[in-house]
Amino acid sequence: MTPEGLAELFRQLAFICALIGGFAFAFLGALLTAPSRSRVVEWAAGMALATAADLTICVVGWTLMASQLVTTTPAGAGVFRFPASLNTMHSRLTLLFLVGMVLFLASLGLSGWVRSRLLGVISTAIAILAGVALMFVVSPFLR
User: Fold this and answer.
1) Do the beta carbons of residue 94 and residue 103 sit within 8 Å?
2) How far is the C-alpha of 44 from the C-alpha of 84, rounded, in Å?
3) For 1-27, how does the pLDDT look when each residue is reduced to its tens digit (9 = 90+)?
4) Cα 25 to chain center, whole Å?
5) CA-CA distances (angstroms) from residue 101 to 12, 21, 132?
6) Around 98, how many Cα atoms within 13 Å sit in the side-chain half-sphere?
7) 3-class DSSP string for the chain
8) pTM to 2 decimal places
9) What distances in angstroms separate CA 111 from CA 63, 90, 117, one per listed residue?
10) In this structure, how many other beta carbons lie within 10 angstroms of the beta carbon of residue 136?
């Protein structure tokens, strides 16, 4: 793969994180303005806050990695080798991404409990199913 191709991959990962982190941030805003002061609201808000912070780090990291690849790789240098320092950073960001996704799904699972017990059970079941599906989707890409 070329440096430009990898940079595009990192930009796409940053975009996904920005999108989901934005949803988490909007969800946090809705929870913070909710009239309820129950423990469930506090936990859901905490999870949404952690998701937004976590995925913001991923956005910054993968965007900077893309920038570094494009600006520091000499054109026509022959065989491209992915820098070891970026490989370590990519591994860390991947772990942060997975943690962020689990936090996001946990906040979605908790969200139904704010409204009612029935909706809480449904939202928790959907979040668990989505988490299992996420692991099936992501597991082939983990090395």
Assistant:
1) no
2) 38
3) 788 888 999 999 999 999 999 999 999
4) 12
5) 16, 9, 12
6) 15
7) CCHHHHHHHHHHHHHHHHHHHHHHHHHHHHHHCCCCCCHHHHHHHHHHHHHHHHHHHHHHHHHHHHHHHHHHCCCCCCCCCCCHHHHHHHHHHHHHHHHHHHHHHHHHHHHHHHHCHHHHHHHHHHHHHHHHHHHHHHHHHCC
8) 0.88
9) 31, 31, 11
10) 9
Q: Which amino acid is at 31?
A: L
Is the Cβ–Cβ distance between 12 and 65 less than 8 Å? no
Q: Indicate the residue type of 61.
A: G
CB 81 within 8 A of CB 88: no
Dump pLDDT digits (tens) for 47-104.
Answer: 999 999 999 999 999 999 999 988 887 666 667 777 888 889 999 999 999 999 999 9
Residues 105, 127 contacting (CB under 8 angstroms): yes
38 vs 97, more confident: 97
* Euclidean distance between CA atoms 128 and 105, whole angstroms: 8
Q: Which two tokens stand for residue 84?
A: 């070891």
